[in-house]
Amino acid sequence: MIEVKNLTKIYDSKKVLNDISVDIENGEIFTIMGPSGTGKSTFIKSVIRLIEPESGSIIVDGKDILKAKSEFEIQNVRKNFGYLFQEGALFDSLNVWENVTFGLKYLTDIPKEKYIRIAKDKLKLVGLENIEYKKINELSGGMKKRVALARAIAHNPKYILYDEPTTGLDPISSDIIINLIKEMAEKLKITSIVVTHDVKLALTISTRIGMLFNGKFIEVNTPEKIKESSIKEVKDFIETSFIESK
Amino acid sequence: MNPISRLGEISIKIALHLGRTFFMVKNVLFWLFHSKLEKNEIFKQTVRIGVDSLGVTTLTSLFTGMVLALQSGYTSKNLFNEPLYVGTVVGFSLVKELAPVLTAIVVSGRAGSSVTAEIGTMAVTEQIDALYTLGTNPSTYLLIPRYFAFIIALPILTVFANIVGIFGGFLVSSIKLSIPSSVYFDDILQFMEVKNFMHGFIKTFFFAFTIATVSCYKGLYTEGGAEGVGRATTNSVVLSMILILAIDYFVSSFLVLIGIT
Questions:
Q1: Do residue B132 and residue A82 have CB atoms under 8 angstroms apart?
Q2: Which residue of A lies nearest to B119 if distances are taken between CA atoms?
Q3: Tens of pLDDT, residues A127-178
Q4: Where are the domains of chain A?
Q5: How far apart are CA A212 and CA B90, in angstroms?
Q6: Which residue, of A186, A226, B176, B187, has the fewest CB within 10 Å?
Q7: Is B133 on the interface with A (CB under 8 A)?
Q8: Average pLDDT for residues B218-230, to the nearest whole number?
Q9: Domain A2-80+159-245: which CATH class?
Q10: Concatenated DSSP letters for B70-134?
Q11: Using one digit for the tens of pLDDT, what is the confidence trace for B60-70?
């Protein structure tokens, strides 16, 4: 379980995250939705300490990760997380299987001989086969995202953080990713935090949605209730998104 | 903006860059002793930096040696009616000064720029953040191997540049100035001591450290997409060149002071 309490992050004297609190239950797909620049990415980057918030606490399985002082302690916290970056952030100098297994050396004690087998298994899980030896620049955008997802789950994390998982993808690739997020949560029992401005994605996959607006959660609810929300900003955001997609 | 505000802004920027550089080097030193060395990466980077710079280093030192022989030969011919001490001039100039400095400048332009571009691209595409999420950090995986690579490759390239430069001088001496090979090499060996060689060789380590620091720092703090990568790369080369020339003076002065002349 992840408990976020009174989290505040300030950039250039602007409060990007303004004293926000939320609890994310185990096994849940919690989606943070909202327009660009409202602090969505800042939120998940804070959860894994890629960004240092000014104040608040982030309690993961009973431990406040913002209290971790040394780099070793922070690395220990990160072992529990997988992270899917917006553009994949795959390493161009490595091939597919080297990318997928990159973290195993640092996050696990698994012997190197097993890496290729693990890479094949994880790639199969995201619907990719026989691409282990391909270079990253030989892959399409959708394939890159799936390889990045395979890399994020390679060390069997308890939590996955998805940063705009469908951005820049065509509708077919986008649907594949949406299904994969659901599958990961169901098959692997992984708790997921998804950050997106894609309303369709949020309404399809989430167990709960947190609507972030100007650094604050203005509503946290189930997709069904979010659809019928009476809060003006939430209604406007959903309606505008549907008009744009038509 | 008034001049005082401008001055204040520049001072803050300089302090910020110096502070970040200090912390980057501190992290490199910390992880050097607290993480396993990425031996494959060190080997890969050393070969890459060495091979990348070998061709340009060869041409630069060859022509430098040739032009040194030509100039010193004809100058002494005009003054004393015969080309005197050509080997000595070529040897000392190359070994103590020109080979280390020119090789460092060539390496900063060829390999330093490519290191900045590579790390800069990684920074703007979140690959640096990805390193953290995968249990490592840029110091261990990117910076330490590149520091090692520059510190290993640059001295080797400089020794190579010494040899090629002296050979270039020999070609001009024998073909254009008709100096016998024995005279040319005697001129070098008669006066050259180990400390003269060491004077140039020691400086290469300072240059290597400077190129590694500048190129890694500029890459790591790249912002602004593809345009930012281009800007960081140019800045990295220009700053490295200026620092190499400045450090050359101060390290040379220090070496002279302690008797390594």
A1: no
A2: A91
A3: 999 999 999 999 999 999 999 999 999 999 999 999 999 988 888 888 999 9
A4: 2-80+159-245, 91-157
A5: 70
A6: A186
A7: yes
A8: 96
A9: alpha beta
A10: HHHHHHHHHHHSS--SHHHHHHHIIIIIIHHHHHHHHHIIIIIHHHHHHHHHHHHTTHHHHHHHT
A11: 999 999 999 99
